[in-house]
Each structure stands twice: as C-alpha cells, then as structure tokens.
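Duplicate of #3305? Posting structure anyway:
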C-alpha cells in the first residue's frame, strides 16, 4: 500500500501534536518484519524482536506468500505481541514493506529484514530519548554490517562528534553522509504517522528506498541519536538489492541525493548548513556508486562495461575526492585473485582492531 505525498503544511501539523494526549505507555513501538522464503533466518529475527527489554511493543510480520516453512516457523511463537499478515500472492519487496506500515499500530516503527538482528536494549535506548523530548520525528542508532559470504562482521563506526542524546537532525545526517557513522534501516526508529504522510517506501527506488524514507526525517528538526551499535545488518549475494544492475544502483543513488537536497531546500533555514547537506549528499552517493562499481568488477564484471557505466554517470561520480578515485582504480585494475586476498586481509585487520 502506498500513501499520498503530503504538502509542507501537513508535515508541519503532524510535527506539532499536543503532548497532553500522550498515554502512560507512550510510545508503542511496531517492529515490522517483511519476509519471503527465509524460514531459517526468520526465527532468529523474530526472537530478537520479542526479546526487547522495552515492554510496549508489537511485532508485525508480513509474509509475502512464502512457499517454504515460514508459517511453520511463525507458529512456534506463542506471544500475543506477534501479529502475522500473509499475502495471498507475492506483491513485491517494497509493497510488502508498505503492508507492514499499513498494519502498524505503533507510534513509531522499526523495519527489520528477516536476515537482520536487533540488540535487546535497542528500543529501550531509543524510547529513553523520546521520553526526554516526545514526538521526535526519528531516532537513529548505529548498525554493524555482516558480510554473509565472508562470515565477517564489520563493527559500526561511532560518531566522534555526537554522544547519545537529542541533536539537530541535520548534524546527525551530516555524520552519516560523511561516513562518520554506520546506519542501516534496521537501526532506525521513525514516527509512523510521518512516514505514512511521506508516502511510505517509494516503489521506484528499489536500492535506496530505505534511505529515502529515513534521511529526510532528519531534516525536520530535532532527532534522537544512540551512538552505539544496536543492530546488525546482513549483506549477502542473495539479497534483493545485491542482484540489481549496477546502473540501477547508481540511478537510485542520484535520485535519493536529489531528494535530500530538495528536502533541505525546504526545511533547513541556515544557508550554509543547507548547502553543506546538499553537497555531502551528492558526495556520499557518488562514493556509494564507486563501491557498487568495485563490487561489479570484483564479481566478474567486464572492464569495458564498467567504463561504459563510468562515462554514463561521470557527472555524478565527479563529486568524489581524488583519494576515493585512486582507491577505486586500484581495486578495479587489480587482478581478481589478489583483490580477493587483499579484501580478506582488510577484514582480518579490522577484526583485530575491533
């Protein structure tokens, strides 16, 4: 299900809801788990959701017409906080995420893919900040990144500039855009009504829909920030986004950079801060574009096809630093066996440092 895009005034009205209406159990949190044919992974995901130390929650699983043992796994949980929605047919990945949103009863919502995990204190740490300043549009925590193929987990980057607390959302977004922090959608808590007002997950951005949902909310004013890893996001070669074409990844990156720039134009009053957000958004997604191209080459992509894509997106990629370009060239021109060894060595060093 999708929702109509709001005008600026309607978002402003939602942001100024009266605190006098807050119930003692505020906020109720929805942990949304969209799933399809991942029964073996789903059990651990649901267990991590139901193991939260914060009590006022519901877990909504939207089963996208799975044909494996998904329903059997879900039947093992005897917990009134768990609700299961089963789609009659496969409606697609992001429509299934929007089905979770449509059925959410929580004041806030967290999306956790069936292959991701959240720490037991995640909700508790986020809601502590919401109780300090009710009606925050968003709370950002950090996420570790697990590479399933390598069986390696990269620890989250923590901010050197912001401790856990309530900050201007533009500062938290700048940390993310400049790669000072590691954020994945499973470590983000969003106001349910604001996400619905913005239309939910955009269906035309298959690779960057998650960032397109949460990043603009940071530009609406204050935001909560938890400066520690509260989730683990899993990346593997069988994920839906990993199978997308590299040109589509670059196109989606350009689109969400434009979205952030446009939202900043409307909501960020300070000209210098607004300009910084717009520049860093384009730089961030240009770097992500180079990473996508590096992965394409590492997985066997042809050098000629790679340079064709480089030329097509040359204006977007021109925003990155010379250092990033040199690193990219070193990766794509390096013989594949050596590149694999160097990548494994890097992960080993990162583990030791962590």
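Output from current build:
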């Amino acid at each position: 299900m999708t929702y109509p895009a709001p005008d600026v005034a309607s978002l402003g009205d939602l942001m100024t809801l009266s605190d006098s209406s807050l119930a003692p159990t505020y906020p109720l949190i929805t942990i949304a788990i969209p799933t399809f044919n991942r029964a073996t992974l789903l059990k651990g995901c649901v267990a991590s959701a139901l193991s939260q130390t914060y009590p006022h929650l519901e877990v909504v699983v939207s089963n996208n017409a799975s044909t494996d043992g998904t329903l059997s796994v879900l039947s093992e949980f005897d917990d009134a906080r768990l609700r299961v929605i089963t789609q009659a047919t496969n409606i697609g990945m992001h429509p299934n995420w929007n089905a979770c949103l449509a059925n959410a009863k929580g004041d806030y919502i967290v999306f956790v893919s069936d292959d991701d995990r959240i720490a037991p204190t995640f909700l508790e740490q986020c809601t502590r900040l919401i109780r300090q300043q009710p009606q925050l549009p968003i709370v950002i925590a950090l996420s570790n990144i697990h590479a399933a193929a390598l069986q390696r987990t990269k620890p989250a980057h923590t901010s050197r500039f912001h401790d856990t607390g309530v900050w201007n959302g533009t500062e938290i977004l700048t940390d993310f855009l400049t790669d000072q922090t590691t954020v994945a959608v499973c470590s983000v808590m969003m106001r349910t009504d604001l996400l619905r007002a913005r239309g939910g997950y955009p269906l035309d951005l298959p690779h960057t829909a998650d960032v397109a949902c949460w990043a603009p909310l940071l530009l609406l004013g204050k935001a909560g920030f938890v400066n520690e890893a509260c989730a683990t996001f899993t990346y593997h070669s069988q994920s839906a986004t990993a199978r997308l074409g590299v040109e589509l990844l670059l196109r989606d990156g350009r689109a969400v950079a434009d979205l952030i720039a446009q939202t900043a134009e409307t909501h960020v009053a300070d000209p210098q801060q607004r300009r910084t957000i717009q520049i860093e958004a384009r730089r961030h997604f240009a770097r992500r574009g180079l990473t996508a191209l590096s992965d394409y080459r590492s997985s066997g992509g042809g050098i000629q096809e790679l340079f064709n894509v480089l030329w097509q997106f040359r204006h977007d990629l021109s925003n990155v630093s010379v250092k990033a370009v040199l690193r990219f060239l070193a990766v794509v021109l390096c013989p594949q066996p050596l590149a694999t060894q160097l990548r494994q060595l890097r992960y080993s060093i990162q583990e030791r440092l962590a």
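Confirmed duplicate; merging threads. Strands lie at 29-35, 57-63, 82-86, 108-111, 117-118, 138-147, 152-154, 165-168, 188-191, 222-235. Residues 8-236 form a domain with the Spore Coat Polysaccharide Biosynthesis Protein SpsA; Chain A fold (CATH 3.90.550.10).
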